[in-house]
Amino acid sequence: xxxxxxxxxxxxxxxxxxxxxxxxxxxxxxxxxxxxxxxxxxxxxxxxxxxxxxxxxxxxxxxxxxxxxxxxxxxxxxxxxxxxxxxxxxxxxxxxxxxxxxxxxxxxxxxxxxxxxxxxxxxxxxxxxxxxxxxxxxxxxxxxxxxxxxxxxxxxxxxxxxxxxxxxxxxxxxxxxxxxxxxxxxxxxxxxxxxxxxxxxxxxxxxxxxxxxxxxxxxxxxxxxxxxxxxxxxxxxxxxxxxxxxxxxxxxxxxxxxxxxxxxxxxxxxxxxxxxxxxxxxxxxxxxxxxxxxxxxxxxxxxxxxxxxxxxxxxxxxxxxxxxxxxxxxxxxxxxxxxxxxxxxxxxxxxxxxxxxxxxxxxxxxxxxxxxxx
Amino acid sequence: xxxxxxxxxxxxxxxxxxxxxxxxxxxxxxxxxxxxxxxxxxxxxxxxxxxxxxxxxxxxxxxxxxxxxxxxxxxxxxxxxxxxxxxxxxxxxxxxxxxxxxxxxxxxxxxxxxxxxxxxxxxxxxxxxxxxxxxxxxxxxxxxxxxxxxxxxxxxxxxxxxxxxxxxxxxxxxxxxxxxxxxxxxxxxxxxxxxxxxxxxxxxxxxxxxxxxxxxxxxxxxxxxxxxxxxxxxxxxxxxxxxxxxxxxxxxxxxxxx
Lengths: 374, 258
What we know:
- The complex is a heterodimer of chains A (374) and B (258).
- Chain A is of the alpha/beta class and 374 residues long.
- Chain A has two domains: 196 residues, Rossmann fold; 127 residues, Rossmann fold, CATH 3.40.50.
- In chain A, helix 1 crosses helix 7, helix 11 crosses helix 14 and helix 12 packs across helix 13.
- Chain B has one domain: Rossmann fold (3-Layer(aba) Sandwich), CATH 3.40.50.970.
- In chain B, the strands form two sheets. Chain B has an eight-stranded mixed sheet with strand order 2-1-3-4-8-7-9-10, sandwiched between helices.
- Chain B starts with a helix and ends with a strand.
């Protein structure tokens, strides 16, 4: 039965994982995502569905456990927060290289270094520009509510198995820690081993019963073979851009100015749009739900309609680079963001929009046009 | 009777396991890896468990083991095979899971994964091939490199004061309560290889009986890395490695041998 509950984002994600029929979770404690493993341990999912939950000795061990379970076609999940994700990146690169389906959750905190345990969106670059070594990308989902923390678990596994590729849920300390009502889906049964072998037996290592052996590896010492592997990966990413881009447009139809924001920043920016409209300023919000693929075409088209764009992020300016690349200098694009764990207020966002875009618009616009001609 | 009349498959006492592929071994001539690979495959074949076994081989000379072992295999990141195998053993408890790791992999970069998988008593087998050197990268000092032993990163010999003592990780692991059996073997002579094979069989038997973790160290030469002929390397191994890493059972059925 679907169920309405009041839950923390982290807990909603954990409960949704059990209900989605996830086979295994491997994790290591780090603030602000520890509730995920605490919730799972408390729920005894091994009794509810047979799901394996194990506290690993490190984030590195946890991602490699995910790699092991994923090698056998099991739905494996891990979660961490920024410094822990840095540790997992080698394993994530291996998952991408070996073409394994898996879901990784990053409940982002402020950095660099040990940084702060407060919310941040400073892992945008790390998430969408590779992070680990080699030519790979992650499909990145950015939840903006507790409901999406729950819903995106199943969505992420669908994509992971569609492409045999790792998928990242990029949350943050705000979405992870806040409580909201959430509708939880019905319990799905886990796939039986027989069903799994039937479905994934052409690649998963489950014991070579009645077939040739399977090998999971990311190693190709022959350059031509390695290049073919890289091309195969790039094809997947191109297909993701074509078939699985997700975004949300709010009040964009008549917008003269645009805010681009994802996750918690999008939630706060939505209020800023309301404040602006109450003042008679026609502002719209484009919320990328997937950060890769990125809504490049939509931004390029919206740039013909609006006079300027503000990229609102809880960082020193990261997604703004992708927004600028997308609009190809048609209109000025500026960044506004707080760091260090400070959350911007809707009022601050509106003020930034007025100062950086609306009031400076004509000057910046002129300059940008000039440089683009040169 | 001519010699060629005797050399027939049915008369062979020692031969390549039929679970070994026909891919030419990438190991250096004289290296012990080929024998170790073959022994493990012989046991899996004789036990009839090849369709229920999943192997994990991480980075090092062992990385290409999946080219030679004709079973389902996963290649793991450097040092992480015990974590990878843990997840496989946990999500497929009815399967036989093993890792095949070198000394740099198991006793340096993967120390944490090794110790913790052993401490949890995961139901699997760890094969630890100890040749006292990093073979794949061309003969650098390993945690198991002996005192005074020369390598490309200890060109004047391993100096204990600055480089530490050779790590007896097997003895360390034997002391963990989660570990069911631990033994150390060599495979450079038929006599040694036969003993090792018995231990390998017992280890997979332990998995079948869900006894927990079985740990088998196999001392091997690395004639290329040691810059010796294969025969000289085997003699050097007996004279230098055997005294520091004594062969035999270290833990049997959960009990330490005194």
